[in-house]
Amino acid sequence: MSASAKEHLFALAGNPNCGKTTLFNAITGARQHVGNYPGITVEKKEGLCSLDGHTIRLVDLPGTYSLTAYSLEELVARDFLVHERPEVVINIVDASNLERNLYLTVQLLELGVPVVVALNMVDVAESRGVRIHCDELSRRLGVPVVPTVARRGEGKESLLKAAVQTSESGRKWEPLRLSYGADIDPTLQDMEQIIEEKGLLTDLYPARWTALKILEEDEQVLGKAREADPDLTQRLLSLAAKVITHIQKTLDSYPEAIIADHRYGYISGLMRQGIVEQRWRGDRLLWSDQIDRVLTNRFFGPLIMLAVLYGVYQITFTYSEIPVGWFEAAFSALGSWAESVLPEGPVRSLVISGIINGVGGVVGFVPLIFLMFLAIAFLEDTGYLARAAYMLDRVFRIFGLHGNSFMAFIISGGIAGGCAVPGVMATRTLRSSRERLATLLTAPFMNCGAKVPVLAMLIAAFFSENRAQVMFLLTLLAWIFALVLAKLLRSTILRGPSTPFLLELPPYRIPTFKGLMIHTWERIWQYVSKAGTTILAISVLLWALMAFPGLPEEKRAVFEKGRQEVVAGLPAEVRAPLLAGEDPASSDPAVIQAATALAELSRQEATEALKYSFAGRMGRALETFSRWCGFDWRTNVALVGGFAAKEVIISTLGTAYSLGQVEADQSLSLSQRLQQDPHWKPLTALAAMIFIMLYSPCFVTVTCIVKETGSWKWGLFSMAFNTTVAFVFATAVYQGGRLLGF
Amino acid sequence: MNWWTRGRGSCATVSRENGCGKLIPLSHARSGSRLKVRRIDGGRRLCARMAALGIYPGAELELVCAGCDCPCLVKVHGSTLSLGAGISRKILVSGPSN
């Protein structure tokens, strides 16, 4: 194989917020692939690029501050380096925060991987009057150092060239040997020697690294070592224990502190004389800090945050209205086309009701989700999101949640009208699995954009004098339920300490257009492809439940006979078009009357068919429970249908109340119908609204929960838990209301 | 490293080469002050995590916004960190270094 045909594998490593993703985007552009590392939610990004005939596969490792085993990100990064053995690790170092960024560099060097340092944001450092001498830094570190400005793509060519050169030079893994002082060094040396002799894990890690990790009691390395040689591991551990006790006794400290101290000592040694040149003093208060003075101010901060959130909400829902309309129009055009092309029968019904309407209902949300994600990507890339989490941590902590939970709640419909699907995905920013689970299980209680039209319809029917107040009350209730139930979960099945709040607030930056687009596109694509396949399957299933079994022959015959009776008295030439359901071309009052009567018959037949179908039977079977909260079988069918998507509740109620197809925007006629129905009272409506607000998330959300938690268990739990909660509260409201005489 | 010998109490007075400094938890320090990290209590894990973020015995930091229940903001090296009360209680600092 010639050298030019070979594919190089490089990895990008660096601290969070050092411009790693920006550089990755600048190098690979759109040629990237986002996936998950197997079994966990840490994103794995890969991209391809080429340079002078070399093909380079670049893997963006998760942002980490060090290489311990304390977080998933660090484990992922470490495992990738050890198992995949990239030829070169491009370590991005923020020039304006050199010392701390080099802490990771030192650990990479200690692991021994060939490193090329990208000294990023040299422009920011320059603007603060700081110049860093790359050549000297490179000489002292013993690795190439290339200055870059990731935002503008500056230096990426020379960076890749340096990386290719390093990989072509065939540099072996050469671990850097640091001294950790008189207390640790002798024992470490002994341990290293033993490991080297016995060949413990030497195929994976350098001996000194293994010794260091055993001293740090690193769970993962210990596990691997025990598997390879339990006796030897025990021996090494007892050696380590001696040092640990010694350090605790004489210095009242931990080995970690001493190791860190020596690493930073090594770094400050590196930086001494001639690396960093402070040419002039930049303003003590940088503009980022000045913005923070206002945006995180005790009084103005929360106010500004509310305004920002309101703005996001407004932008998303106002500007998505028109394109959402286009999508709906496109799908209904597609439906009409299918109707004209396909012959009548189950196939046509499947294609139109099952596939086009089901998938269209979800794909129709794409413009909304696009804008929502764009707004969030903007807030995230500017650095504002971290500030909002910081300000809200205090409130959410009371309920066992975390500052980062708030975005998931807001997106899910915290200001009525979001969507739980991106909301559930937004919980990725939460590190602790318990807090994350509590957040993603309670976020679907919020009033999403699909519940809003259903609630609005019921409000219009029964509480028309106080529409705004009732809607506001429902939004408030959603928050109360979500927070209180989160507290309940966190003090029962998800009990555990709350993670201390620890977050780096990145300096404010103006996001790059490219970065925003790539981030938004990634998420949109995930939504469309992953949810799209499941949606197709379940909407077909729900269609089948509502379409089968069809009415038995004798019942159909009764309706057919009724139709024949209606048209019996009419002239022969109008009979066929009338029976085919076409608009009567005649202005003859008898014909129009007959058409109305036929339509009424079709509606009754649809209701009858729905009652007879599996879904209808299910609805009737559920009446045993549902009468406690005042629902009859028709409401039950609608609620079962609402599991597909909450908007379906309106159309199913419409079918069930024999209105034929009811579109969401024609809901008033359904409102009137419900108002006149003796079964529906304001109390029933209130119980129904509470039930709809709280019961099982729609299946797209459930699939998302399954995907995000990595197990079906939590998906099923959210369905059962939320439905139970909904049932309990709807029953309480209905029975309580009846006792009070409503 | 002899200035963090002994003294588990949160407000112990320890002697160091150039004078005396009172150890207080970061959560009790005043806004706007420059402080020197003296010790990290609360286990090896926290100690390692803090070191990776640049907070280790000997590091200098600036308290931008003090705690009082909500997370405090500190500037260390070039970055701004927000630390919850659970953490800032365990970081022992001494007054302005001079």
Automatic annotation (TrEMBL), chain A:
Keyword Secreted: no
Pfam families in the cross-refs: FeoB_C, FeoB_Cyto, FeoB_N, Gate
GO MF entries: ferrous iron transmembrane transporter activity; GTP binding; metal ion binding
CDD domains given in the database record: FeoB
Record-annotated FeoB-type G domain positions: 7-169
Keywords of this entry: Cell inner membrane, Cell membrane, GTP-binding, Ion transport, Iron, Iron transport, Magnesium, Membrane, Metal-binding, Nucleotide-binding, Transmembrane, Transmembrane helix, Transport
Regions that span the bilayer: 299-317, 354-379, 399-425, 437-463, 469-489, 527-548, 683-702, 714-734
Main localization (coarse): membrane
Domain of life: Bacteria
Binding site for Mg(2+): 25-26, 28-29
Residues that bind GTP: 14-21, 39-43, 60-63, 120-123
Membrane topology summary: Multi-pass membrane protein
Primary role: Probable transporter of a GTP-driven Fe(2+) uptake system.
Similarity field: Belongs to the TRAFAC class TrmE-Era-EngA-EngB-Septin-like GTPase superfamily. FeoB GTPase (TC 9.A.8) family.
Protein name: Ferrous iron transport protein B
TrEMBL record, chain B:
ATP-binding as UniProt keyword: no
Keywords of the record: Iron
UniProt-recorded Gene Ontology molecular function terms: transition metal ion binding
Limits of the Ferrous iron transporter FeoA-like domain: 24-95
Cited PANTHER family: FEOA FAMILY PROTEIN, SSR2333 PROTEIN
Protein name: FeoA domain-containing protein
Biological source species: Desulfacinum hydrothermale DSM 13146
